[in-house]
Amino acid sequence: MIVQEIPANGTTPATNGTSTTPSTPPLHAVVIGAGIGGLLAAIGLRFDGHSVTVLDQASSFGEVGAGMRIPPNSFKLLHRWGIDLTYMKKTYSNGNRFLRYDDGHVIADMPHGIPEWDFGGSYLMVHRADYHTVLLAKARELGVDVQANRRVDGYDWDAPAALLSDGSRVTGDLLVVADGVQSKARKAFQGHALPPVDTGDISYRVLVPGQDMLSDPDMRDLISQPWVSSWCGPDAHVIGYPVRGGEIYNVVFCVAESTMNDQKLAENETKLVIDDNAELVERFAKWEPRVRKLAALTGKGFLKWRLYDLDMVDHWAHPSGKAVLLGDASHPMLPYMASGAAMACEDAAVLRKSLQGATPATLADAIKTYERVRQPRASALQRWGRQLQAAYHLPDGPQQEERDAAMAQDNEKNPIYWGHNERRAWLFGHDAEEWGQSKGEKTNGQAKQ
């Protein structure tokens, strides 16, 4: 195992203006999972002088994933930490636009305004691979030891240590388990099995070349006017937005699996590659022309994903006091809130702050603080994601008409979380490093939930 050297004064390497000089000896953290949450946790801990090893089962890191969003509540943390997104290809979001599925009529616009002024950070639409590349480069720049092709098969929680498939073990003071929705470690934290639950929905994730849309007068506004467009219809909705400055249009078709007749996902299979878009084209044949065109532009070789949900994870801190869950391992979120990566970023920030000044003797208390601070907020957003699943997929009728009317109102009856200004302030104005003092935190508990 490679353990990075810490400078003699205990500070982190140069290039970051927020590093601290710990008054206690640094810890050695072993992070399982080099996804967005794992890398952000590693970066945050390294800023404070801790030694960090990251283990990931992937043989290499490359062009993986599709579009995602970086809202102000995570952007402000990235900016403060010196994670420079200046030269990363990106699109600034106008806001969220909701449309009827059959004629494209705008149900409601929910503009972001000027999020830098209102919430302290930009709202970006990016390609996940580009974002991951920036984080990976920052982690390595800071001296994080990122190891690929290192599959973790088990744990020694008392050591603590990660047990690898090749028979070796990586020991540290703290294990940060960020191994995703299918986490192998979660059962040990809860004391019982807590498998992901199939929601009954599947998603098709597609990247369409922007030039194919710009050449079509009916489609070009979807690129040139960068809204997150959401078409809501019976048992399905479609979300689209441009990334990489309009080079690519990211489309997600979310559908009740029972309404699809293409290749089925096997039991416990999370994704597969679809080679023929005929079924997708047929499924959306009665939707408005732009959605039909998007379905036709999917081509071949796009991904079909099973959407999972999870019951409340009660314990993010392991009983040993030497391990924590982070990101999707503790609070996997349905994509309807577009907050999964942002919540992982907030996790990393709170974990970092909780561990400042911690020693092996006080580690158990520190990670319980992390759990106490993060759990209520992440769990509230999980619940809202479940509600949005039902709200997006209503059939035409009285409930749908009531939903559409409520979407245009700035009050608590709006079914879209950020459609209510007070809730939007709680979501986007939050500062995970201030623990309750950020803009929007003075709203009452009912409004938040």
Automatic annotation (TrEMBL):
Pfam families: FAD_binding_3
Domain FAD-binding: 29-383
Record's compositionally biased regions (Low complexity): 7-22
InterPro entries: FAD-bd (IPR002938), FAD-dep_Monooxygenase_BioMet (IPR050493), FAD/NAD-bd_sf (IPR036188)
Keywords: FAD, Flavoprotein, Monooxygenase, Oxidoreductase
Disordered, as annotated region: 1-23
The family this protein is said to belong to: Belongs to the paxM FAD-dependent monooxygenase family.
Protein name: FAD-binding domain-containing protein
